[in-house]
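call fold(seq) -> tokens
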Amino acid sequence: MAQLIFDTKSLIKCKDKASKTWDKHNFIFIKFANVFLEKLEETNISFKNILLISSDFDETYKKLINFNFHSLTYLSQYKKFLDKIRVTKKNVFKKFINLDNLEQLQNNQKYDLIICNFNFHNINDKFNYSKNLNKLLSDDGILFCNFFGENSLFELRNSLIKTDERIFKGVFSRMPPTLKMIDSSNIFSSNGFKEIVSEIISYDIYYKNANEILKDINGIGESSCLIYRKKSLLSRNYLKTLNNIYLNEYSNKDSLLKVSCNIVSMTMWKRN
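ret:
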């Protein structure tokens, strides 16, 4: 049994809360949706049955809805997102399911395109999740798995560690463990996926202060949802120290704080 790292209930609560002001913070998902559309069109394949397993809102969904398909299923564990998704076609479906229990979806339905969007890095049992994705995919079907890579927010991660050391003389678990691309590739390969190709799409974002960074992270529901984590509120002194360390280590000539966002986009096939 896989070790439980992520508090799924807390993650769902964070995402549901973020849905209220999502449009103020979702610029990364908008940017990536355009990149992903190009990747999809490059396959030059006419997909019949599409499954979108999404932890963003409708950024990718809006791109897919214009495709000529037999069916499109939008699957999420975030009810607030599902409630807001507009269904304008009879062959579009919405399904609510806990992503840690994807086997509940198993039925006779097979998909020739599955898009796993921004949830793989927050799954507890990634091996079993990958296994279930393979079962849902039709023979010669294609899977796209997009998630935040190991170098995302490394500036913030390092600054938090140094702030903890300075104030508490020790380090707390404030951010989730990073997911390495090679580890993800090995998981999917072990579950029968073939011709795995990985690409990193990188964005550099600049902020005036650390508090703005934290607001955007919370605004997309990606705040730390570890089972064992430091739950105390960040004090004014903590934030001031964090900002000073961040400014000293990762600022540009205009004194803006740099944030790295790396999205890993993996493409793979189910072959007999």
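The domain at 8-270 is CATH 3.40.50.150 (Rossmann fold).
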